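TA notes, week 10

Several of you asked for a full example with nothing omitted. So below is the full record: structure tokens for the whole chain, then the designed sequence directly under it. When grading your own attempts, check the secondary structure regions first.
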């Protein structure tokens, strides 16, 4: 009986340990396989489907992240993820990737504002 209980407790402990391992990919590690000019299909083959996309007229961004664990509780939050990765496409080809910073969004917005101001300040040609 003691042998059975010992074996059973060992099996349960192994199941617990292997069941709690994080099997999600590390997107920052996988990003080393990306290169400029890759197609969306190539990126999907390496990283899988994006968790979120951000599209405008000039570019398309695919955003990846993995769940984080607090104790045994998985938390699916993009801002808390340690391996958040953004891949940017122009005309369906990779132009850059990395951890998208708030500065990138601010730069894009300021460039659009400057272009709009320049267009508005130019005299109309009639």
């Amino acid at each position: 009986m003691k042998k059975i209980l010992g074996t059973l407790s060992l099996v349960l402990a192994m199941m617990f340990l292997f069941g709690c391992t994080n099997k999600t990919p590390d997107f920052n590690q996988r990003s080393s396989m990306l290169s400029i000019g890759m197609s969306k299909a190539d990126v999907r083959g390496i990283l899988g489907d994006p968790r979120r996309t951000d599209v405008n007229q000039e570019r398309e961004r695919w955003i990846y992240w993995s769940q984080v664990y607090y104790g045994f509780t998985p938390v699916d939050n993009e801002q808390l993820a340690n391996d958040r990765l953004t891949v940017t496409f122009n005309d369906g080809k990779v132009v850059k990737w990395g951890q998208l910073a708030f500065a990138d969004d601010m730069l894009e917005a300021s460039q659009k504002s400057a272009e709009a101001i320049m267009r508005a300040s130019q005299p109309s040609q009639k």
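The beta strands are 52-55, 60-64, 68-70, 73-75, 85-90, 93-98. Use that as a sanity check on your answer.
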